[in-house]
Design brief:
Helix content: under 10%
Shape: globular
CATH architecture: Distorted Sandwich
Number of domains: 1
Radius of gyration: 19 Å
Oligomer: single chain
Amino acid sequence: MTAQRADVHTAEFGKLEDGSAVKIFTLKNASGMEAKVTEYGAILVSLTAPDKNGEFADVTHGYDDLAGWLTNTAYFGATAGRFGNRIACGKFSIDDKEYTLATNNEPGGIPCALHGGIKGFDKVLWKGEVLESGDGVVLRYTSADGEEGYPGNLAVEVIYTLNDKNELGWECKATTDAPTVLNVVHHSYWNLSGDPKKPITGHELTLFADQYLPTDAGLIPTGDKATVEGTPMDFRKPTKIGDRIDDDFEALKFSGGYDHCWVLGAEQKKGMNRAALLMDPKSGRKMEILTDQPGIQFYAGNFLDGTTTGKGGVVYQKRTALCLETENFPDAPNQKNFPSSVLRPGETYTHKMVHRFSVRAPKEKDGAGGEDKAKG
């Protein structure tokens, strides 16, 4: 996941109410890309990437200081867990024992547990240190048995790396002393234009998936897998996000746009596979995502509503950023036909993803890229 060694610098980002100091780590590679990661929430605070003219800009939504992140309700840059995405009614069972979680989200007026609960992994202080290899940072947290209703003492670590191939790596590992459920996800909001005021509807997206998970009005998967063929959910070739986002299609009506999990293709092999390719035609910035997970959630920033002031005093409007979260399937603890999300003592949970940044070649045209057509 790494190439050459990056420079990593450590500084204090601020203090919590109890006086605990919070560190921020700056990772910089030889080409000038820079990623900032904080111990609070294991959050990616910012990431700069070059455009076709070699100009660098931050391509993530977020805040300028720790105070903003402490009130973050949109999960900007977050490590979300224990269970990223939704669990229906905040309930699940393991070995015939039922567990109840806090419900902190109500799409369609139907309660669910979202991204780990009221105080998930994004709202706790992790312990970070520079990797011995010098190319990144490891952050560790111990989630106590019963935290947010989840069973088992969970030891979890998240590793961020940045290499000279312009690849941002994110990896999660975890072990438990009692059976539990787990689906830790990375939740950055991306705008490859580098201008957080511009909508992402002109970005071109490819998803390497021929199926997606239909949901009910509460955005909980029905348990079925539906083909993308002939629907606005078909991103098997580069497609502008805004082209069909407001189509008269049930899945889009439920969520006010794209907010669904796509099933990565049948040809996915064990290990790392392509999940998505995102490009901003004007700046030329491209971001390819690879993962070892079975699904990817594409969220088009439908619920950004102009009430959040972010970096540089910019007010974040609807669809000015998007999320591409590799993951196990939403509500997997309650869906027998989905990949298991249960982690047991003696097992190690792993989730890897890579964000590979590049720029569009001059010969490529808007909407081009047939070589990137999904084959899965």
